[in-house]
Amino acid sequence: MRLSTFLGLIATLAVAVDAKPLRRATKHVVHEEKPAARRNWFKTSRLHQSKILPVRIGLTQKNLDRAEEFIYGVSHPDSDSYGKHWSPEKVVDMFSPKQQSIDLVMEWLEAEGIQPGRAKLSSSKTWISLNATVAEVERLLKTQYHVYKHDTLGHHHVACDKYHVPDHLVDHIDLITPTVHFDQRLGHDRTNKKVPLSEDQDNELRKRMLQRRQIPEHGILGSPNSGFGPKQGATITNALVSLAECDQMITPACLRALYATPPGTLAASNNTLGIVEYTPQAFLQKDLDIFFEQFAPPLVGQAPIVNLVDNGVLQTENQSFNFNGESALDLEFAMALIYPQRATLYQVGDLVQGASFNNFLDSVDASYCTFEGGNSADPNVDSPYPSSVGCGGFAATKVISTSYGYNEADLGARYEQRQCNEYMKLGLMGVTTVYSSGDYGVAGNGGQCIDPLTLAFNNGTDGIFNPSFPGSCPYVTSVGATQILNGSSVRTPESACQDVIFSGGGFSNVFAMPDYQKSAVDAYFANSAPPYGAERFNNSRAVRGFPDVSANGANYLTAVNDKFSLSFGASASAPVFASLISLINEKRLAAGKGPVGFINPTLYANPQVLNDVRNGNNPGCGTDGFSAVEGWDPLTGLGTPNYPAMEALFLSLP
Ligand SMILES: *[C@@H]1O[C@H](CO)[C@@H](O)[C@H](O)[C@H]1NC(C)=O
Ligand SMILES: *[C@@H]1O[C@H](CO)[C@@H](O)[C@H](O)[C@H]1NC(C)=O
Ligand SMILES: *[C@@H]1O[C@H](CO)[C@@H](O)[C@H](O)[C@H]1NC(C)=O
Ligand SMILES: *[C@@H]1O[C@H](CO)[C@@H](O)[C@H](O)[C@H]1NC(C)=O
Ligand SMILES: *[C@@H]1O[C@H](CO)[C@@H](O)[C@H](O)[C@H]1NC(C)=O
Ligand SMILES: *[C@@H]1O[C@H](CO)[C@@H](O)[C@H](O)[C@H]1NC(C)=O
């Protein structure tokens, strides 16, 4: 259903609220609570009892305990079934919830007065959806819904503080939305916005925000203040640079020289690189053309293939670095590096609500809806979010790069685990999911850290390190940022990025350490243990460390709003790394092989295909953060790509 219908909070439904008496005394337990960190959202009014909520109940899926085994089966270089990726049908069969889970949840709904027929099971069987009044949902979940308001930005959001389920259902339900998750874009529209800013004012504001580490707009992907986008540096009037100047300005030629990358080929014309952008972030063709004229003349006039997801729009109303910088950076460099291969842009979300990662996942994960139901599947059931082209409406490209992220503490563990498992499924189906690791060192978006007592975000002068998500999900490839030191050349080893931004990295508070990185992380602690303990990060050596790899993230000469300026951020590193993987896929396809899919197990087993980075830090939270050392480290991962070695390795695999 279109949430905007709900959004206006205009829908009302006269439903007789006749609670049937429960058949047995049921004990209810708290299932999820609003993350403590979200203290910048405060409660305003109760939501009216007659409003309609589009409820989605995420059922617990079976066989997830075997996820690592399955993913290694297709992606570990020692596996006999390396590269034998799964069909969407096999993914659905393997993970769809047990019938018992479906039955128990349906029984519960009926016992609570939801007539059979109102609750619908998605064809992937992983979600039960229903439209219910606030009164019904409040009774069902023993909760209260409020409109929350963001303390500094004034945005609204509909949520509850916590909710309950009967204790016999705890193991059958992953999560229920809309409830405590502040990335579900269920709010009023963005009223009370800041007054319009001129570009100069906008840049000035951004600079001040960086300086003062003002609280960014967590949970609003693509918004100009999300804290995750690239950071802008000096305006450049003469963009004609030589390789000798790569320490001052990064061009596609610098990246090719750094990573020994050849131009692309067109052996498999259907192989495109996926780049995800969240509205209102948008590219402007004239910016791409200014860039291409200089660095990739055959591309002048060429746009990416555009997939508009969830009513995605390429807005042109507001144009400034904050609205165009990320898209320009991602597309200009990726398109130049992979040419003549093409890029596919997934432009996600409308102007009113934007979108969350789940909307993107819904749109590309065919296993959500095309299996069994096929095209006749009710798109409203499978994808309750606004979607003209609904669930599974777009093919997933074989490599997908996203330079947006949350703090892990922004969202609940159950929510993140469920989403992370979707990246695992994409890996099983042969998709490489690449995310940037963040730009604030060991701190979170906007430089915030976590107060040890309240677990709320603080101003970043002290506190617990604040890892990013989805970079901390073990089934994505997380990319950190490096730089060429001033005075160094493309032949000198790079350092962790310390120019304008610090490479995001650290250890998860949610995800266990995947087996593939165990020896690398053990070696890190054995040889280079940082001088901090559990008061700063989970040093149990039992949790996921990130990033996995890195690539240059400083001084990108980007054409934005008709002129060249420098961009900084792991935002740049992710699409560059993804571009190289797409080039390798092209070679594999030309050799009659499949795409590489999930690459982490192969990379950790073959660290020699990456250039180890051993210099630099990623400060934050009043510390120097971690140090780049020999071997894997939590700021540059295994290192930057050595393209010829990486290509040879992946081509040697079946
Ligand atoms: C909920 O309501 C919307 C809008 O009326 C409708 O499109 C959708 O199919 C409904 N969903 C369910 C599960 O009934
Ligand atoms: C552009 O900015 C103005 C003023 O902040 C705002 O009202 C409008 O919604 C914005 N448009 C987009 C597409 O973000
Ligand atoms: C590209 O995809 C189309 C449609 O799926 C298919 O017919 C065609 O053979 C593909 N081309 C190549 C070169 O793989
Ligand atoms: C940050 O917070 C700490 C503790 O509340 C306070 O002492 C410090 O002055 C603050 N620093 C800034 C720059 O706001
Ligand atoms: C790089 O080094 C040169 C010479 O030492 C200096 O003039 C220049 O300001 C430095 N540039 C940056 C960006 O630090
Ligand atoms: C660190 O992670 C381990 C493994 O998940 C967990 O058992 C432990 O409680 C965590 N420690 C802290 C301080 O959160």
From TrEMBL:
Q: Quick check: keyword Protease in the entry?
A: yes
Native organism is Coniochaeta ligniaria NRRL 30616
User: Matching InterPro entries, A to Z?
Assistant: Peptidase_S8/S53_dom_sf, S53_propep, Sedolisin_dom, Tripeptidyl-peptidase_I
Q: Which cofactor does it need?
A: Ca(2+)
Q: What is its main location?
A: secreted
Quote the EC number. Answer: 3.4.14.10
Where in the numbering of this chain does the Peptidase S53 domain appear? Answer: 249-653
- Name the chain's protein: tripeptidyl-peptidase II
Tell me the organism's taxonomic lineage: Eukaryota, Fungi, Dikarya, Ascomycota, Pezizomycotina
Q: Which UniProt keywords apply?
A: Calcium, Glycoprotein, Hydrolase, Metal-binding, Protease, Secreted, Serine protease, Signal, Virulence, Zymogen
Q: Could you state a single Gene Ontology molecular function term?
A: tripeptidyl-peptidase activity
Q: Which Pfam families match?
A: Pro-kuma_activ (PF09286)
